[in-house]
Amino acid sequence: MTAPDGYPFAALxxxxxxxxxxxxxxxxxxxxxxxxxxxxxxxxxxxxLATKRGTDLSALAAAALLLAPDRTxxxxxxxxxxxxxxxxxxxxxxxxxxxxxxxxxxxxxxAEPGCRVMPAEEAGRLEGAVETLTYRNKALAHAxxxxxxxxxxxxxxxxxxxxxxxxxxxxxxxxxxxxVKRFRELAPVYHPDTGVVACRDxxxxxxxxxxxxxxxxxxxxxxxxxxxxRP
Length: 231
Hints:
Layout: E1 32-38, H1 40-52, H2 57-67, E2 85-91, H3 97-111, H4 120-147, H5 159-165, H6 176-190, H7 200-223
Antiparallel strand pairs: 1-2
Helix pairs in contact: 1-3, 2-3, 5-7, 6-7
C-alpha cells in the first residue's frame, strides 16, 4: 500500500486498532488514527525497521514512545516545498506528531548504525553547505576550463611546446623529477574519466608532452658538458 504521493507506509486493518490485546481488557482508550508528515527517507527507514522486526509500524511507534527520551532530536516535518511522506498510524490518543517522529527517530538510531538522526535545521544547514560546495566546484571547473591549454593541432613534436604546456619557462629549466611532479599535478585535472576538466585529447597530449620532456632531459644530460657535475 502506498501513500497518495507515492511513498510507502504501513497498511493497517481494523484488527490492528487494539495492537496490545490486553489494552481493552483494562479499559485503556482505543487507538486512533494519526497521519504524521516526515521526510521520505525517514519514512522508508521506519517502515524497513518495522518489517525487519516482524511487526507493524504502529506497534513499533507505540513501543518507541514508551522508551524514547524527550531530548531525542525531532527529524522535523518537511518544508512546504519539499518532498514529503506520511506515516499512517493507529496509537492511543494524546501524542503529537513531534513526539511520534522523535520516538521513531530514537528507534532508528538504536537499531540502524548507518542512520543518523538530526534536527531539520541541521539538515538544512548541511544541504546548504553541499549546494555551496557544488557551486564552488562548478566555478572552479569553469575557471580551469578558461585557463587550461587547448589541444594542439597534430602530434606534439617540439620540446618548446611541451615545456610551455607544463608551465615551464623554457626547455632548459627543469629536470626529470620536476616533469614527473608536474605531470602528476596536471593529470587529475584532465583525466577523461575523473578530471575536473575532463578531456581525452588534452590528456593524450599531456602524456606525449611528459614523454617528450623526459626524453629531452635524459638525452641532454647524457650528452651535455654538465654530466660530470651531476652528483
